[in-house]
Design goal:
Blueprint (H helix, E strand, L loop, with lengths): L26 E6 L6 H9 L4 E6 L2 H13 L5 E4 L2 H4 L9 E7 L7 E2 L3 E2 L8 H11 L5 E8 L4 H8 L4 E6 L9 E8 L10
Parallel strand pairs: 1-2, 1-4, 2-3, 4-7
Antiparallel strand pairs: 5-6, 7-9, 8-9
The site of S-adenosylmethionine (SAM) has 18 residues, from α1, β2 and α3.
C-alpha cells in the first residue's frame, strides 16, 4: 500500500518530463464510480464524444431509473449495477487510454455551513477513493475531476491537492454567492504543461 503522497508519483520520479507526451494516448475512458443520475457523465461525454463512459451505481432503484433515462437519450454510457470498489478492479481500461475519473461521492455530513465542504468527510473520503483507484492504474495517466462546493475546508483541499502532480480549482459562476459549485482538477503521471494540453 502506498502512502497518500506517493500515489501519483510512484511511476515517474520528479523531473522526468512533464506533459501528456510522456504517454501515447489513443483514447479516453471516463469513469464515474458514483453514477447517480449520470448527469455529469452525460455532459462530460457531450464534450468528449469519442470517449468511453463507464459508471457504477450501488442502489438498484437508482440504477433502474438511470438505465431507463440513458436508453431514452443519445449517449453511450456503460452503466453497471454494484459497488465500484468490487466492480472497478475487474474492468479493463485499454492500456493506451487517458483515464478521467469524475469523483462526486455522497456528501453526507461533509458540508458544514460555516467551514464549507470537508473532502475528508464525504462517504467515503475523496482521498480514499482516489488512492484506491490510482492503485489500479499505476501504468496510466489519470485526470481526477472532483466535485466541490464554493467553500471547501482549506486543509482538506490541500490534503487532496497534495496527491496530484498538477491541480487547479475551478468554481463556476452560475449561482448566487455562497451557493456555487465547482471542480478540483488533479492529474497523476502527467500534467498540462502548456495551454494547448488543457
Ligand atoms: C452524489 S450522487 C452521484 C451524482 C452523479 N455523479 C451525477 O453526476 O449526478 C452519489 C451516488 O453514488 C451512489 N453510491 C454510493 N456509494 C456507492 C458505491 N460504493 N458504489 C457505487 N455507487 C455508489 C449512490 O447510490 C448515489 O446514487
Amino acid at each position: 500500500m502506498l502512502a497518500s503522497d506517493e500515489v501519483c508519483r510512484s511511476s515517474f520520479p520528479p523531473g522526468q518530463g512533464g506533459g501528456a507526451a510522456r504517454h501515447a494516448i489513443a483514447g479516453y475512458t471516463i469513469i464515474d464510480p458514483f453514477a447517480g443520475s449520470c448527469n455529469s457523465l452525460y455532459w462530460l461525454l457531450r464534450h468528449m464524444p469519442t470517449a468511453h463512459g463507464i459508471a457504477f451505481e450501488v442502489d438498484p432503484a437508482i440504477f433502474a431509473m438511470t438505465q431507463a433515462n440513458i436508453a431514452a437519450v443519445d449517449t453511450s454510457i456503460d452503466l453497471r449495477l454494484g459497488d465500484y470498489r468490487s466492480l472497478l478492479p475487474a474492468y479493463a481500461v485499454p492500456p493506451d487510454h487517458l483515464v478521467v475519473v469524475f469523483v462526486a461521492p455522497p456528501w453526507g455530513d461533509a458540508l458544514n455551513p460555516v467551514t464549507g465542504l470537508d473532502l475528508r468527510q464525504t462517504q467515503p473520503p475523496v482521498g480514499t477513493i482516489i488512492d484506491a483507484i490510482d492503485q489500479l492504474h499505476q501504468d496510466k495517466p489519470l485526470l481526477y475531476v472532483t466535485q466541490v462546493f464554493q467553500h471547501v475546508e482549506p486543509t482538506s483541499l490541500a490534503d487532496l491537492a497534495s496527491r496530484f502532480e498538477w491541480s487547479e480549482l475551478h468554481i463556476n459562476d452560475i449561482n448566487i454567492e455562497g451557493m456555487k459549485h465547482g471542480i478540483l482538477l488533479g492529474s497523476c503521471r502527467w500534467k498540462p504543461d502548456k495551454q494547448g494540453d488543457r
